[in-house]
Amino acid sequence: MSLSIVAALIWMLIVNIRAMFPSKDNHWKFAYAMIALGVPILIWVYLDHGLILAAVLLLGAMWVMRWPVIYLSRWIRRKVGQ
């Protein structure tokens, strides 16, 4: 297994474990940090293994961190609807 895949799996494990614990700010600060770490890891996986595996990991990340994706889609719909 390549280092990029190991980094992506460790990222997913950390995000899943942190999501199990309560937070006063509903995990938003943690989500921002994990997105900032996840994007370079996703690019690294893309460069090492190609688009299909990177897309699978992106879908997995979007599944785990679904609220930032939901808020982003709502914001885009508001901007396009205006």
Would you give an account of this structure?
With 82 residues, the protein is mainly alpha-helical. The chain has one domain. The chain has helices at 3-19, 28-49, 51-64, 66-81. The longest helix is centred in the middle third of the chain and has 22 residues, at 28-49. It is flat and about 45 Å long. 13% of the residues are buried.
Kindly report the average pLDDT value: 91
Order of helix and strand elements from N to C terminus? HHHH
**Low-pLDDT segments, ≥5 res:** none
The total count of helices amounts to 4
Question: How many structural domains can be distinguished in the coordinates?
Answer: 1
Beginning-to-end CA distance, first to last residue: 47 Å
- Portion in beta strands: under 5%
- Percent of residues in helices comes to over 70%
Largest sheet composition: none
Give the overall shape. Answer: flat
Q: Compute the CA-based radius of gyration.
A: 14 Å
Structural class: mainly alpha
Total number of strands: 0
